[in-house]
Write a structure and sequence with these properties.
Elements (H helix, E strand, L loop, with lengths): L5 H23 L13 E18 L3 E7 L2 E7 L8 E7 L3 E2 L3 H7 L12 E11 L4 E10 L2 E17 L4 E13 L12 E15 L1
Antiparallel strand pairs: 1-2, 1-3, 1-10, 2-5, 3-4, 4-6, 6-7, 7-8, 8-9, 9-10
Amino acid sequence: MKMLTKNGISCLLALLLLVLLSACASLLAPKVKNQLIELQAGQYQLDKNHASLLFRVKHLGLSDYVGRFNDFDASLDFDPQDPLSMQLQAVINSASIDVNNPEFEDTLKGSSWLNSQEFPQASFTSQSIKQVSDNQFIITGSLLLNGIRKLIDINLIFNGGANNFISGKYTLGFSARVSFLRSEFGIDQYLGLVGDEVLVEVDGEFYKR
């Protein structure tokens, strides 16, 4: 019988370790419930470590200019037995805009755009809920941006819920999409060159408080 070399033994041990790690990962993976009625009711807070807020706007009619905000928060009151009673609140620090260009970020924070010095925060407060499907909702609420308040509709999808072994807290996953015209909020610089419609994409998790 041919004996294993040291390299062979090392490779075998590495393979066994990978198998064990894969088995452990499978055991630790949360058991996600996807049906709305299976989710837990309660008060939820945004997990800032597992959330992103991106925006898109047309540039010269040629491409989407994509940026993000790095500092935002949200809370959710949710009862799957009475989903139309859902309440959502969110706040964004406008000075946290990130377009991978510090000089242009300073321009966007200025009075011709986000006016971050005078209006450091944008906020959203839900007012009414419409259920589109089991896990999809249209949330109508007021967006306060640049000192102007308007009603907008947010398309919110619950991706499921599970006990998060990392945080030790029950967690809901979600995706949200919304669009609005920036000119309606007094942000009308270069409308001929930069699109009026702003698309916002938020993906992340809420943990139960």
